[in-house]
User: Fold this.
Amino acid sequence: MKKPKMTKAQKSEAIWGLAFVAPTITGLLILNFYPIVNTVWQSFFKTGDFGKGNTFIGLTNYVNVCTSSEFWGSLLNTVKYAVIEVPFSIAIALVLAVFLNRKMRFRSGYRTIFFLPMVAAPAAVAMVWKWLYNQRYGLLNQIFHTDIAWISTPSVAWISVGVVGVWSIIGYNMVLFLGGLQEIPHDYYEAAQIDGASGIRQFFTITIPLLSPTIYFILQTRIIAALQVFDLIYMMIDKTNVALKSVQSVVYVFYQYVFTYDNKGYGSTMVVLLLIFILFLTAALQKFEKKFVFYN
Amino acid sequence: MHNTHTKDTVVRAVIHVILILMSVIMLVPFIWMALTAFKTVSESTSIDPFVIFPSSWEFDNFLTVWKDYNFLILYKNTLLMIFFRVLCAVLTATMAGYAFGRLKFPCKNLLFTLILMQMMVPSQIFLLPQYLMVSKMHLLNTQFALVFPGIVTAFGTFLLKTSFQGLPKDLEEAASIDGANTGQRFLLVMAPLTRSGMVSLGIFTAVIAFKELMWPMIACSNVATTSLSAALAKLQGQFATNYPQLMAAALLACIPMIVLYLIFQKQFVEGIATSGGKL
Assistant:
């Protein structure tokens, strides 16, 4: 086991390398890795009053969380939100990207408009949508001559919140799709045109398969992001709203336990379970990737 | 021939109609925000007749929320938070990105695994311990607290590593033959060539910081020390049903970023798009 001796140049490079990564690694250890351990640690404790006298209770928090209908309800709500946000934002963005992927008038104008929600604060976005959804004075009910309580009817509210999620993210997905579309060689479409394939046929036989890496990438990142939804729900659904129970997400309930009820152990348990759920999902999605994604 | 030409025109027209319709859907919330902000409360809650345009363009709502919530301080807090986060993120990530992309050093793979791991974990898991740390330092409700979670960036390191890897090797070799050491090569040759990566990371960091809600809400719960986003959450609790004032505040909070976006569109779109879904 003789260690190969480093030359002077290699030694100097090693020192520079370690020095350059030192700030980032130190920061990550303090800001991220210690917190992961600490959160997991706290999930084994019952939080005492005033944050003092925490007592070790083993897996009790896990048992309590896993047997509480509130947690499973919030997980279901989160999945429901994702089921609205992810497929619709991807489908609409893909169609828009295909439309914009050619020389046309106002191309950059459209892109600017679709991307606009990305630079608006979600807090502000949620406020204006709450106002649009207002039952008595809101624009939506006025335009459609309806009288729907968009965000306080339990069976409707989760869809209304999901719609805002879709609206917020379409432009972002579209820009990623435009990037992917530009990598598809133009000859493919020309060949298809000579063969007389219609635009819709070209979309399904050329665009979708060749774009599948981009689609997969967006799908994965959107699912993971959607499972962490908080801002829209926190801002749009008041605590007194009767629909809260059917809209509140896992992160929302976590936030309430940790920062409102000061039950840190219980809240930490929820977020650890969310982490496990997301890691499993990521692994499952990677299996799915190997099967369905077409790489050149 | 004539037939396909007409068909083409029809298809084009249909596409434009769909795109225009979509643009309207994207813009209406912003337009409605602005129109409501100029209305009086009674105009905003009039349904018979329904009022679309305010009868006179008054700035009262803006003045009220500006004074009550001291927007000048909110702008200052948010601007400083963005400034320091961008500075820290770009500085640390450029250095680390260069090392991971270009240099050989011990434990490199292990350390890079840490970067990748951090990117896979949902950020809420960091939240409570980060809050407790700032609380122990007695620095809640300070500018430092706003910046704290963004001092280093795993994602930024990953992004810059990719930028450095994309640069040609000969440049660095030429510099090292000229006798430049690693630090000089980084500073004088390599770092300037990854400017576009740094700009992307900077814009991405700024937008994320601007949009963040939960952290400023808990770490800076006092409205005089918090960011624009978190202040909006407080304000909604207070002005509950005064929608013209709420919309005025929302507009005040959003306008600076929207103006910057309209000026630096290309950089914004690229910067946010390279973020790889971390938004």
The first strand of chain A starts at residue 45 and ends at 46. The beta strands of chain A are 45-46, 55-56. Chain A has one domain: 60-292. Chain A touches chain B through 97 residues (CB under 8 Å).
